Amino acid sequence: MTNTKYESLKNQMVEELFVLQGRKYTHELPESTELSNYDNHPADQATDLTDQVTEMAIEDHNDEQIEKLQAALQSIEDGSYGKCTVCGEDILHDRLEVMPTALTCVDHAPENKVPKDRPVEEEVLNASTEQPVNESRAIVDYEDSFQEVESYGSSDSPADQIE
Ligand SMILES: [Zn+2]
Predict the structure, then answer these.
(1) Both ends of the chain: CA-CA distance in Å?
(2) 49-93: pLDDT as tens digits
(3) CA 108 to ligand 1 centroid distance, Å
(4) Is residue 80 part of a domain?
(5) 122-147, pLDDT tens digit by residue?
(6) What distance in angstroms lies between residue 67's CA and the mean position of ligand 1's atoms?
(7) Which of 76, 72, 75, 79 is CA-nearest to residue 99?
(8) Measured in angstroms, how far is the CA atom of residue 106 from the centroid of ligand 1?
(9) What is the distance in A from the centroid of ligand 1 to the CA of 57?
(10) Using the 8-state DSSP alphabet, how is residue 33 labeled?
(11) pTM for the structure as a whole
(12) How many separate domains does the chain show?
């Protein structure tokens, strides 16, 4: 018995998978628009960085979508497609029309949850700073903080006292 109920969704997903995989293998990171950073305005460099970060985020999303498509197509093959993987209830056909890769009902939809992983941009942002911000270091005593800063010089030295 062949399941024709999801035939159009299956075709739709096969097509999308084909497009995404094609993009994945032909794709390269955009090249920097500048040969050197030496004489550049910081805004130019920022534009380059933004391009690369955006590109990486798209790439990340592509991989995710490819995995979802493969999982959904696999479940069509083994006949589990259209049923929620959490509670086993039928997934509404309207939901599948909108999101063919859905493997759960609306109640158990992972896309409704807050993602655990941090945005990919943060890796790049952290990597570019030479002095990472140490968030665990809180200012406990403002006097100590002043002494620490004072060691770099103050206007209170003997030389400053002479009038
Ligand atoms: Zn469910």
Answers:
(1) 101
(2) 788 888 888 888 899 999 999 999 999 999 999 999 999 999 999
(3) 5
(4) yes
(5) 666 655 445 555 555 555 566 677 77
(6) 20
(7) 72
(8) 7
(9) 29
(10) S
(11) 0.55
(12) 1
